């Protein structure tokens, strides 16, 4: 029995029109502010990829894929190992997401750079491209995945799909397709191949598999574009068909979110960057607890209880009361608040297995409670601390740092980059890589970034 069904009358040719936009777009068509945000996206991604390179998740992935890898022609950022391009895309998608420190498109909770930059940079080590062309393709990929995400969010996410994996594969396919010069028909095929490999489940949050999602999206998106280039066809209406991506995977299909104001309204300009290495909905609570710690100093030992008033999504996504591992700790607002109060920490060091099981952290964590309030903004929180003598202190965060209202500055991105990368490749190599990443649009060969990232790397 054929899976083909006629598209309802009035449905736009979403796949074709989106593909044609990607093909026709030139670098000069992208506004300067959007290109600047694209550069910030890339710099942040490089730091996160190197920062996560020594995580046990990456070690395990390398043990599995090295025996399967072809010609070692592409870099795993921050590592001495080299793999074939497809496996390098997979590994860099994993490294850049494993710390949960990467960029976020707040409207959809997509982490856009992981699938797109990981695929593009691995490709660039084998099919050279300039920094300017790389940046254009990166922005195209981010735009495509976020627009497709907008069209199905929140229903798609609420069903349990991890939207970074499911929409990210389209972004990777678009970016690689743009970089290798696919025509409209072949890019439609690439989107069809990507749609057939769109996956990732929210059930995996708090495990190694969560970071596998953007890695696999990068790998699958790259292969989708390369297969299409070789003449491997697919449906040319994979996004909008009755049995295509949007209808199968969501109760919502808003085509205007994909096609509306293409080239005028830029989702890529809305990207944001995490100040803390965990689920983004926890960030207000961490900031609020840090501010209280700054005020009370040694009185942190006198805390009797803590109460958080948060948006309902906080408890839905990060309500783990008893995390057992560092990865699970990234999805526990209770653990995150305890570490912020005790140590003022929200960096990767707050989310290790040791910190999650630290006796003092566990003791305070058990005295932290939370109430969901639908009137509370997602980027807001109220933290109320009660001390053993009965006195209280309240801290309200109206909009957390890292939100669209309080974005990270370039200097804060630099600090974040340096702190995590220096632990992996050292301070000197980190400074060189950071400066090179900011200058990436000037490079004649963007692969210089990948090579530079491994200069200070050592085997685990």
Keywords:
MmgE/PrpD_sf_1, alpha+beta, 2 domains, MmgE_PrpD, lyase activity, 2-methylcitrate dehydratase PrpD, 460 residues, globular, MmgE_PrpD_C, four-stranded mixed sheet
Structural notes for this entry:
With 460 residues, this protein is of the alpha+beta class. It folds into two domains: 14-272, 2-methylcitrate dehydratase PrpD, CATH 1.10.4100.10; 280-397, 2-methylcitrate dehydratase PrpD (60s Ribosomal Protein L30, Chain: A, 2-Layer Sandwich). It contains 21 helices and eight strands. The chain has helices at 14-24, 32-51, 56-65, 85-98, 113-124, 131-152, 155-158, 163-180, 184-195, 209-229, 245-249, 255-259, 283-296, 312-318, 326-329, 333-343, 353-356, 359-365, 410-425, 427-438, 447-453, and strands at residues 74-75, 82-83, 104-105, 271-272, 303-310, 368-372, 381-387, 392-397. The chain has a four-stranded mixed sheet with strand order 6-5-7-8. A two-stranded antiparallel ribbon has the order 1-2. Strands 3-4 form a two-stranded antiparallel ribbon. Helix 2 packs across helix 6 (131-152) and helix 5 packs antiparallel against helix 6 (131-152). The chain is globular and about 75 Å long. The termini are far apart. The model has no long low-confidence stretch (mean pLDDT 96).
**Ends distance:** 52 Å
CATH superfamily of the largest domain, please? 2-methylcitrate dehydratase PrpD
Radius of gyration: 22 Å
Structurally, the number of domains stands at: 2
Number of helices: 21
